[in-house]
Amino acid sequence: MDKIKMTTPLVEMDGDEMTRILWDWIKEILIKPYVDLKTEYYDLGLVNRDLTNDQVTIDASNATLKYGVAVKCATITPNQQRVEEYNLKSMYKSPNGTIRAILDGTVFRQPVLVNCVKPLIPTWEKPIVIARHAYGDIYKNSELKVEKGCTAELLVTDANGNQTKKLIYDFTDSDGIIMGMHNKDNSIKSFARCCFNYALDQKLDIWFSAKDTISKIYDHRFKDIFNEIFEAEYKEKFNEAGIEYFYTLIDDAVARVTRSKGGFIWACKNYDGDVMSDMIATAFGSLAMMTSVLVSPNGCYEYEAAHGTVTRHYYKYRNGEETSTNSVATIFAWTGALRKRGELDNLPELMAFADKLEKACIDTIEAGEITKDLLPLFCNDNIKPQVKNSRDFLLAIQKRL
Ligand code: NAP
Ligand code: MG
Question: Most exposed of 110, 159, 231, 257 (fewest Cβ within 10 Å)?
Fold first, then answer.
């Protein structure tokens, strides 16, 4: 067969540790034999981030804005221990944070479902996609301890020096704590547009939840912005696509999600998204099967696995020991990016290839050829699962592909 041609390059962001090893093998075994792969390569591995003073992360983000589609390997976010391990010049910021800030994007997380791993909620038949607003609220707050006898107030000074005050609490009876937090209309608007665009892209209903009955100004602002943008820009497109948007209270959303069959996007405020994405990931089975895509309000897409660099497996690999690391989420990052590139460049063969590769992954697992993480979750009594090492798992997928 002739290799499938690409016209525009993908932005390829390489990464660290075990996922960097898998990255090369995925390209070698599952992509390059079939696709005339075109990428613009950026090495976001920690060594090169240090060499370039992290400029490579900025360049890769700008390339994503230019080309519209990127695929990213997991990367180390340095802490003090990594600074020593890699002898770093500085404790660089999280690459994902940098990319997200430059793309002004929203992260959507979606599990890969296989029939031999049952969700802990038996009614869930289809994926639940979580969209998390990754800006502001308690993640950019100011907090204080307050002593008994203090009065705490919110104070806002406008550009002309006029001040507005509002009482938080009179601490006459006890010591206590206070917190100030913010969000920006611009950021909420971008979040809303990312959510509506992705719902149209995926042809999925979208729910947005907050607590506007209690937070009558703060959370209510989120609700209003979502409604205004929906009415003005998306209502007709949603009608044409046959999908729905609705707002509901966060506690009602939790109840509805639990009872649902899945198959929708749940847009969450920052903290809710942090908590609920871990709940959804666990309930669907395995972090190793959770994919993630960063979508910008102007329609750029960056695909990746939701998990990290799987450090523990990497140390084993480096010692020459056998590993059985699940590469499914990383493969789905590649298929997501190739399919999107195919869609934008009108290359049906490339889109079909992405579908076939995903099906080959699912078929391999459903046939019982799995990685070690899936063994305790495997629930098909008619098949005796065989645990493959990291590379043989990819070869088993290739056989089916
Ligand atoms: P992690 O790499 O996701 O791994 C945590 C544990 O989850 C692993 O030790 C492994 O459990 C299991 N696991 C995760 N992915 C797996 C896979 N594909 N196959 C099999 N098992 C898998 O999280 P971490 O250990 O907290 O973080 C490691 C590094 O990744 C850190 O430096 C962090 O900064 C970085 N990180 C990057 C991203 C990103 O780039 N998006 C996200 C998160 C973390 P067992 O050891 O029990 O097998
Ligand atoms: Mg979390």
Answer: 159
